[in-house]
Amino acid sequence: MFLIIGYVVALGAIFGGFMLEGGAITALIQPYELLMIGGGAFGAFFAATFPRTFKAVIKALPLAFKGSKYNKAALRQIEWVGGRMLWSGRALNWS
Known about the structure:
The chain has 4 helices and no strands. The chain has 95 residues and is mostly helical.
């Protein structure tokens, strides 16, 4: 959910700022540049990864759009334990 909200805020700020400066939105919509940049990035990613890793990334991609399995209380507890470990020196092996 936060991923989608983040994208909406980012795109709203980019397009909104561009329009406030007097730019035309149609100047930003250029499908051939999107094809070249997106295709180049995907091709570079494909060429730089092993097939097994590539398949795992594609399979895990929908997880970016699902909600977290942890609730706020669990995250607070993890944060508290991490803070206690850091200040006690255990995280840095100072004991």
